[in-house]
């Protein structure tokens, strides 16, 4: 598919914004190269481009394009950074909500034996997570990300994920007049902020460019 004048006119601003956004995160990657990667996405996905441009809702269409272009940009920048700095992308470790939640009880209680026990069985780069001393780095990273949350978020995360408080206990402990479910969701979103602080979610593979780059928010029943 060729890049038509209509596509250029409609999405140049979006491409420039996304390129600037990722250039700030990855200053070693040339901004023009990130823009080029975005335009390549249009060429490589003609069916989706046609389908989305024909949607009645411009807002919905723009959201789909922006999400996919960010996925493509993230994937490209991670690969380029690895090439420039001389390491393998496969060596990178990506934090997820589930991983952070699993370690929070040990991290926030400074119980390092508990952290190691939680890591047993998981792997990264082909070796158990509990081996090689990496667990100390994981704990330090998670504590640093936790410190970036505001006080209320810290309290909710601590109670819900480190102390296994129920939703009702969260409601009773909170100063906000909000439902237990709303507070559980806020705790979950706070962990999502920790993921972003630690570099964001793993880039999606090309065949999943249409999916959100961030983990889906739970509905309150699985947080």
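-> sequence recovered:
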């Amino acid at each position: 598919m060729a890049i038509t004048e209509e596509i250029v006119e409609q999405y140049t601003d979006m491409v420039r914004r996304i390129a600037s956004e990722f250039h700030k995160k990855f200053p070693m990657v040339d901004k023009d190269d990130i823009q080029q990667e975005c335009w390549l996405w249009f060429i490589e996905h003609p069916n989706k481009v046609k389908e989305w441009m024909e949607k009645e809702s411009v807002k919905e269409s723009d959201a789909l394009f922006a999400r996919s272009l960010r996925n493509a940009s993230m994937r490209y920048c991670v690969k380029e950074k690895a090439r420039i700095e001389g390491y393998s992308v496969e060596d990178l470790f990506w934090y997820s909500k589930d991983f952070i939640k699993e370690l929070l009880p040990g991290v926030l209680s400074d119980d390092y034996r508990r952290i190691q026990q939680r890591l047993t069985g998981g792997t990264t780069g082909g070796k158990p997570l509990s081996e090689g001393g990496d667990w100390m780095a994981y704990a330090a990273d998670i504590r640093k990300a936790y410190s970036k949350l505001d006080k209320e978020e810290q309290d909710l995360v601590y109670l819900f994920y480190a102390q296994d408080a129920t939703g009702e206990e969260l409601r009773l402990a909170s100063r906000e007049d909000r439902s237990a479910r709303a507070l559980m969701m806020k705790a979950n979103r706070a962990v999502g902020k920790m993921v972003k602080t630690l570099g964001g979610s793993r880039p999606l593979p090309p065949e999943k460019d249409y999916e959100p780059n961030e983990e889906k928010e739970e509905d309150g029943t699985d947080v």
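The longest strand covers residues 123-124.
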